[in-house]
Request: fold
Amino acid sequence: MRVYAAIHQTDKKRLDSELATAADFMLEALKAAALPGKWKLINKQTTNEQKIDIYHDLFFHKEEYPFRHFPIANFSSLRNGLRLTAPEEAMSNCTYGQFKYADNEFSKMVMAKEQGDEQAAEEQINRLVASVYLPKSGKFQKNATDQLADKIGRVAFPWQKELVVEAYANTRQGIIARCPTFWPQPEESAEPTAAQATGPQWHELHFNIAESEVFKGFTTVDQANMYDVFDYLEALAKRKTTKTQ
Reply:
C-alpha cells in the first residue's frame, strides 16, 4: 500500500506485507472483472511482482489522487452476524463523537506501527474499521466496537482494511487542510514526534465545546456533524488570531 504521510516508514517486513496485499487485491479484482472461468488463468499467469506493479498504477493510490470515499461498500457475513455499511465520502455523515473515537483508534494504530508491533497494529486496524463503518441503524455505537472488531478480523481481507485505512487517512488530511488555523501543519524542518493517542485531547475539547453557546451540552456536541464542529473551531481560532495581532 502507498505509504501515507506521517503514518509509518517502509521497511522489508512492510514491503513483504504490501506484496501480499497487492496480490490479494488483484485476485479479487480479477474475480469481479474477468470473464467467467478466465480469472484463474490470468491469476496463474501473473506473478506477484506484476500484480503489485498494476496495483500501484491504479489512480486512487497516487499522491495526487487522495481518495476520500470508502471503496468497500460494506462488510457483511451471515455466519458471523455482521453487517456494516461504509460512511459517505469524506465521512460527511460522521458525528464528532464517532470521529473522536475513530481517530483515537487510528492514532493507536500509528503508534503500534512505529513501535513495530504488527499484532497490535492489526488489532487497531480492525477497531478503526469497526469505528468508521456503521450498523444498519446508521448510528455509531461505541459499546459494540470490541465485538465488531473481532468479527472484522475474521471476515475482512487485508487489502480491504488497507483501503479503509487509506480513505480515513486521506479524510483526516482533508480536515487538517480545511482547518489550517485550528490544526496547523508542522514546519517541514521540525523534527518528527512520536505518535500519541488522540482520544484524550479530543475528549477534553469535547467538554470545552459543550460549554459554548453554539452547541450547549455534551450530548449535542457528541451528535453534531464533525464538519460543523471543526468549522466552528476554525472560526474561533481565526478570531483569536485576529485579536492577538
